[in-house]
Amino acid sequence: MKDVICIFAKNPKPGTIKKNLGKAIGKKAAAKLSKSFIIDTIATTLRISNVDLALAVWPPDSIEEFNGLVSYLQNHELDFKITEKSKNIKLLPQIGKDLGERMKNVSAEMFDSGVERLLIIGYDSPQIEQSIYRAAFELLKSNDVVLGPTFDGGYYLIGMTKHNPELFENISWGKPVIYRETVGKIDALNMSWQELELSYDVDDTDDLDQLYFDIDNHRLTGDDIICVHTERCLKELAE
After folding, report:
1. Is pLDDT above 80 for 1?
2. What's the pTM value of the predicted model, to 2 decimals?
3. How many domains are contained in the chain?
4. CATH code (residue 85)
């Protein structure tokens, strides 16, 4: 495991996930949609060659539920190579009192195990393409950190070449200053870094509208792979 992508994901139970979206489309629908986000994010990252995948789950006792999601993917994935690669996904619990501490602990565990380049990503940006993740790993060949900013002031990706606990400490998690504060930490530590393209995570109906638009654009350009499960879920919810 030299290059690793670690997806941070929450167990998609109604009422405990995507609460703003749940208020608009219903708790069960938001949970179902979140499940499709996780599956599509797993599928996209598994298609990247020479990269291993880890899944950091919250709450810590939901490993079995996420094993079920991986099994679902295996039973519905038409690409045999992806199915085989999914058998090697490393599942680990998120441990810590807040997101920063949980990310810090996972980062430490990954680098202690011999990882050379690590991307930590969310589960709720299923529209992110393989090319973005490949670009992040390429940038880490000559930089200490890479960041993928979101429109709401956070980030959908942070990539590193070593464990830097300071990047996750004293950050205003849940507020629109996460990206700015993280950049401040990077600069204070005199680390080299690069920025990826701006994107979004799906938190509300405006984001969902954008996701509809992006999926349509992918289909118009001949991309019939990305967001397959999410597209199917959206159609089912619309019926």
Report:
1. no
2. 0.96
3. 1
4. 3.90.550.10
